[in-house]
């Protein structure tokens, strides 16, 4: 019998394409999975604390308004403080995603938070503990919001409006 020649199986051509950046971000890299999980956890915790802080302060401001106006008006009155706060927050998030600054929106956010603190602390019985209990939630809301914005910010600095006019780009 003649010797049989073994023919190797047909091989597939080797792909010479470079993988797209970010195409396989979670495939086999446990560090990226851990980082993604941490970012998600921080975001959820920050959003939870933010919503709790706003709802607590909202109830405080509602109680303050009840001292002066009717129940019907008092239920909406806290929006005069937290309405600009929320709109400024959305502007800051948009600016953060677009790598732009939001100085005016941060000023509105600080002013609204300061107003909420002043109104809540102004109606306390005068003990330091009572002032801390009602004054911290608006501050906590501001801090939590700042941390949430940090989750959406890029690692590069903000791109100012002047960069688009002069044609310069940051690296």
From TrEMBL:
Top-level taxon of the source organism: Bacteria
Keyword terms of this UniProt record: Membrane, Transmembrane, Transmembrane helix
Xref: Pfam families: DUF2637
Transmembrane segments: 33-54, 74-93, 105-124, 130-149
Chain positions covered by the region annotation Disordered: 1-22
Listed InterPro entries: DUF2637
Glycosyltransferase in keyword set: no
Stated name of the protein: DUF2637 domain-containing protein
Lineage: Bacteria, Bacillati, Actinomycetota, Actinomycetes, Kitasatosporales
């Amino acid at each position: 019998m003649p010797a049989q020649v073994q023919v190797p199986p047909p091989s597939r051509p080797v792909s010479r394409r470079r993988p797209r950046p970010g195409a396989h971000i979670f495939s086999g890299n446990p560090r990226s999975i851990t980082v993604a999980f941490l970012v998600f956890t921080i975001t959820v915790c920050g959003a939870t604390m933010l919503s709790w802080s706003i709802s607590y302060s909202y109830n405080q401001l509602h109680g303050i308004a009840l001292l002066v106006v009717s129940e019907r008006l008092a239920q909406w009155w806290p929006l005069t403080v937290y309405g600009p706060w929320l709109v400024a927050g959305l502007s800051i998030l948009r600016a953060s995603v677009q790598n732009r600054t939001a100085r005016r929106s941060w000023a509105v956010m600080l002013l609204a938070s300061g107003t909420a603190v002043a109104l809540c602390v102004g109606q306390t019985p005068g003990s330091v503990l009572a002032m801390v209990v009602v004054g911290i939630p608006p501050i906590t809301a501001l801090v939590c919001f700042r941390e949430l914005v940090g989750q959406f910010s890029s690692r590069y600095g903000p791109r100012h409006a002047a960069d688009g006019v002069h044609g310069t780009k940051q690296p």
